[in-house]
Structures are given as C-alpha cells and as structure tokens.
Amino acid sequence: MSLFEFLNRISFFSILAWAFYFIAALCAIVLTTLSTPLARKYRKNLIAVGTSGIMLGTIAWCTPYFLRKLNPDQSKLTSIDQLTSTEWIEPVSNPETELPKDEINWAKQISVQFKYKIQLKEEFSRAIAIEGDTVVYLDKNGTLHGFNAYTGLNRWQIELHTYHYLGSLLSQKKLYLLDRTSLDALRISCFDLQSPSLLWQRTIPNSREDASLTVDWNNQSVIVSAASNGIWALKQKTGEILWKRPELYVKTKTLPSDKHILAFEPMVAGRAGSWYFLDPATGKTLQKNPHAFTDIQSLIPGEMNPSLPPFVIAKVDDHNYFNLNHLDLSQGWSQHSNDQKIKIIENVGRDRYLVLYESNLLELHNSQTNALLWQKQLTQINPVWMAVSPNLDWIILPNQSEDEVPGLSFFRTETSEYVVTVRTTEPILDLRFFGDWLYLFSENHLWALKRN
What we know:
- The chain is globular, with a radius of gyration of 28 Å.
- Helices cover 16% and strands 44% of the residues.
- With 452 residues, it is α+β, with helices and mostly antiparallel strands.
- Among the domains are: 3-70; 76-91 and 122-295, Methylamine Dehydrogenase, Chain H.
- It has helices spanning 3-7, 10-33, 37-41, 43-70, 101-109, and strands spanning 76-78, 87-89, 112-119, 124-131, 134-139, 143-148, 155-159, 164-171, 174-182, 185-192, 197-205, 212-216, 221-225, 231-235, 241-245, 255-256, 261-265, 273-278, 285-291, 298-301, 311-315, 320-325, 331-336, 342-349, 352-357, 361-366, 372-377, 387-388, 394-399, 407-412, 418-423, 430-434, 437-441, 445-451.
- It starts with a helix and ends with a strand.
- It contains 5 helices and 34 strands.
- A hairpin with a 3-residue loop joins strand 5 (134-139) and strand 6.
- The protein has a 5-stranded antiparallel β-sheet, with no helix packed on it.
C-alpha cells in the first residue's frame, strides 16, 4: 500500500480528529468547573492545550480533503459481493408472432426475412453490443438488457442507474462500459456476457469532462482517457490500477499499438500541446512530440492492413481533418471543408472513409490519398447517423426528419447508387449487423431480420 493510499483512509483521520477534540473539550470542562489555586495557576496552560486541540482536530479533519486535491487517485473499486446480479425474465413476445403485412413487404424489398419482433420493456436509448448469441442494449433508465440474438428469448437485465452513457467496447466476450453515475463521477463496468454477470466496477470521482475508453489487447488492459484526471490503465480481469498519468490532460481516445500508446494532449494557456508515446506496461513517456493544436475532436482509427501504414483520421474541428500515421506521427494529406460543416466521418474498410456534411452532401474518399471517389447530395433525408453493412455493399441512412415518413434508405457503397427506401412504422434509432443478421431498434421495438 502506498503512503497516499494509507494517509487517505478517512477513518484514521476521523479518529485522530476526535481525539484532539476530546482533549480540547476536557480542558474546557476543567477550566469552567474548577476555581482552585491549582486551576488558576495552570489556567493559561489549559487554555493553550484546549486551543491546540481544536486547531489540530480541525487540521486532521480537513487533511483528507487536501490530500484528495494533491493525489487524484481517489477511485473506488467495488467488491464483487456488492454488485447487482442479473435477473432472468420471461420473453416479452413470441418470435413466431405474425407481423403486419407492410413490415413483411418492406423486408422483401431488401431481401431479408423477419425472424422476430419484440416490444422493449423500457424506452430504448442505444444499442451496445452483439457478442456470441447475445444482443445488449441500454434503456433510458440506465438499465442494461440482453437476450438471445437468434430467438429473442432468455432475457436478462442489470440495473446500472446510468446518469450519462459515454462509450463501450468488447474484448474476449467481456463488455466494458463507460458512463457517469453523477455529474462529476466516471464509472467503468465490466460484464461477462456469457454468465451474464457484472464482474467489477471502478469509479473515478471529480471528473466533469467527457472521457473515452480503449482496450489494449496486447497488455490486457482498459485505457480510460479522463481529461483533467489524466490517463488510467486498468486490468481487464479485475479493474485494478496498472498505472496512471494524472498530470496529463487527455480526453480524446488513446490509440494502443504493439510498441506504444498514442495520447494527444491539447495546447492550453501557458503550456504547449504534445503527442505522447507511452509505454503500455508502465505508462512512462517513451517519446514526446510538440504540436500547435488547441484541440482535436476525435481520432478515428483506419482499417488494420499489414500491407499499408497504420493511419488515423484526426478530426480537428467541424471543418478540418487530416491523415496521421500513429506509429511515427508523420502527417499525410489534410482536408479543409470550407463552408461545409462536417456532421459524420466514418471509416468503412478497404482504405476508404465516408464524410457526411450538414448540407447532407455525402462523399466517399480514399483513406491513403484522400482522392474523392464519389459524392452524392441527399435530397429527401436528413440522417443523424449512418451504417455500412459488414460486406461493405450497403450504406444505410435513416429518415428521421419530422416531415418525412420514418424509414431507411439504402445506397451502394461502390457507386453511391440509390437502391431502395423502406418505410417503417416507427423511426429507426439504431441498427446493428451480426453476420447475416440485422437488428433494428426503435424507441419501443426491436426487429430481428436475416439476409437471404
């Protein structure tokens, strides 16, 4: 146990403070009840002892607060016997239930078959993961739900009471979820999706800014970029702290590689910005390179292709982004969108990326050269998200504007050719592919379909 960890035990300081307060109170009682010559002789001494006791008690009582300011490692690892266990419940609908004819018709338009449709118990917030035979989503009350991906049966739920969802990642059938439990506390939760069960949780207090989560596969660690609370590396299996760099200001997702972890610290008043190469095992700085960026909104990893240099698209702001080799920090092309404000950037594999502007102009570029492959003006839809099918043949965009009938529009990735728009009874808020299966989420329902 480190010195800080020992001194930060508030029970130690509480006992010490009460001891001083007790001495001070005893002295005060003696002073007020005794009027003997001996009491008068030592009155000044008793006053000094009482005053010192009150001062020392106050200092001891306040010490943990100041130590928390000096040492940011005030995280809490919840023991496993305190965690909420899963609760198995009956399926809310039968997968064999007949579906309305209009839904069957639009399924035929995109060559898919309906397998089942279920009513969600609580309002949908976001799809989290599909792993093995389990679909996981989060509702608006902060409860995590899971069920069998192929039948909709064997539903379970874990109450998290999430204040604000920040991100999640899958690794070896474990789900790592980053959220807020309050306005100023981060929480990392680890779930075993096979059991299902909640394995561990760690909270990081005094964290009001946005944070991000990355998994370092090689070192079996979870990397949390906690902005003004620095970078934390946790053991995947237990949540124990491997190392931390509290002095770094990092809120953009870090990028692990075989050799190092790349972290971006923006330029702030009185201090230059830097790219850091950190040792994945210890967190020590291997290399530090200066830069002049006041901020970078996001780092979007490209496809891992052994025949090409590893790259990331760094989105600086709503109008600028560039290509960066995250092993040597060499910068390739850069792009300025002039008056076009960027809404979404997404890598789609095969050395290509999509960019959607606020004007609903959609473009496909080559990731290595930034050559424009095609562009298409979307005239009848106003999407807030996009998805690409696993075999990269479809780009799928939702119709979510108030004056449009809800549905999904399909385009061919290679040519931007419009394929079809399917109308749904409710706006689709999210979708997930899993092999040949497609899962559509609305506010109150989930549709499971399989491609022919």
